[in-house]
């Protein structure tokens, strides 16, 4: 039954090629993964290593690994960063690499970032992992096929001491994948779809050692359901974040982020799936390790908050 469910999901993905970017449960602790304009906001060299295992226990379920780094704003207001990611689902592997460049506008009590991210998106289909019902299926030819397209993202990010709002359009140019040696019209018409993202959050200092941060993420892409993620997290004694999210498409997420030192943090999230697919999985797991170096200006936004 698990294989049937996975096959149905893969079939929908091949026909619509909808939401191609990886899903992140801890987006509020790693905003640069979804919005290039977040670069430079932590006033430090900030790095995040992340691994996500989705739908554990289901053969061919999605698995994601990513690395992101961005630098503090230069004296000229410039920002930069880099992203690398590997995403696997069933017989397909995707590799993404990109660089970010942007500019920051400073106001009296707030800042506004603009940024453009450019790179490539490489997709590999391993046909040896496909199972066909009929032995003489014309598409059962084995081997691997790949295609690479350029990708461009644009984002804006406005933030104050206790508030932020950001928006991004990822894969602006909607390039088409042309898999080498695969003449079938279904696979040669894959297109890198535009992803529209909007997120916002607020920090509420309820008590000296207890801070609440509600956040919201809205993501839309043609060919996939609209994703709405609402989160509430609490920072206790400026060391431990505890949070819970509700995702309209499938899950309740429980998470924690621990500031081990002033420059090192670790986070974990568990997705409890309440849709029909939840009966065939043991949930989803996501873990990240973050570093912040060379923090200089103590008057800027605290990285622990935003």
Number of helices, counting only DSSP H or I runs of 4 residues or more: 2
**Gyration radius from CA atoms, angstroms:** 20 Å
Residue-averaged pLDDT:
84
Structural class: mainly beta
Number of strands: 15
**What is the beta-strand fraction?**
over 45%
Provide the fold topology.
Layout: H1 2-16, E1 45-53, E2 63-70, E3 78-89, E4 92-106, E5 111-126, E6 144-159, E7 163-170, H2 185-188, E8 195-202, E9 204-207, E10 210-221, E11 227-236, E12 240-247, E13 251-259, E14 264-273, E15 284-293
Please describe what this structure looks like.
The chain has 306 residues and is mostly beta strands. It is 6% helix and 51% strand. A hairpin with a 7-residue loop joins strand 2 and strand 3. The protein is globular, with a radius of gyration of 20 Å. The termini are far apart.
Tags for this entry?
15 strands; 6% helix; 51% strand; disordered N terminus; 2 helices; 306 residues; mainly beta; 14-stranded antiparallel beta barrel
């Amino acid at each position: 039954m698990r294989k049937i469910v996975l096959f149905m999901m893969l079939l929908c993905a091949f026909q619509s090629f909808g939401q191609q970017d990886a899903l992140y449960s801890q987006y509020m602790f790693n905003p640069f993964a979804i919005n290039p304009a977040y670069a430079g906001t932590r006033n430090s060299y900030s790095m995040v290593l992340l691994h996500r295992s989705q739908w554990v226990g289901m053969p061919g379920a999605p698995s994601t690994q990513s690395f992101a780094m961005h630098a503090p704003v230069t004296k000229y207001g410039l920002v930069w960063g880099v992203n690398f990611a590997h995403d696997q689902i069933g017989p397909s592997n995707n590799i993404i690499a990109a660089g970010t460049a942007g500019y920051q506008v400073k106001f009296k009590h707030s800042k506004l970032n603009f940024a453009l991210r450019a790179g490539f998106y490489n997709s590999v289909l391993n046909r040896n992992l496909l199972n066909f019902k009929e032995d003489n299926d014309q598409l059962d030819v084995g081997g691997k096929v790949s295609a690479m397209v350029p990708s461009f993202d644009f984002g804006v990010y406005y933030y104050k001491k206790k508030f932020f709002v950001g928006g991004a359009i990822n894969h602006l140019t909607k390039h088409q994948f042309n898999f080498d040696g695969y003449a079938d019209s279904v696979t040669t018409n894959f297109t890198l779809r535009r992803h529209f993202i909007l997120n916002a959050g607020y920090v509420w200092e309820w008590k000296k050692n207890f801070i609440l941060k509600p956040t919201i993420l809205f993501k839309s892409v043609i060919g996939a359901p609209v994703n709405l993620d609402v989160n509430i997290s609490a920072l206790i004694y400026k060391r431990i974040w505890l949070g819970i999210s509700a995702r309209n498409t499938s899950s309740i997420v429980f998470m924690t982020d621990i500031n081990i030192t002033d420059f090192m943090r670790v986070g974990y999230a568990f997705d409890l799936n309440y849709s029909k697919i939840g009966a065939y999985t043991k949930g989803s797991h996501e873990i990240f390790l973050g570093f912040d170096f060379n923090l200089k200006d103590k008057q800027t936004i605290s990285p622990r908050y935003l």
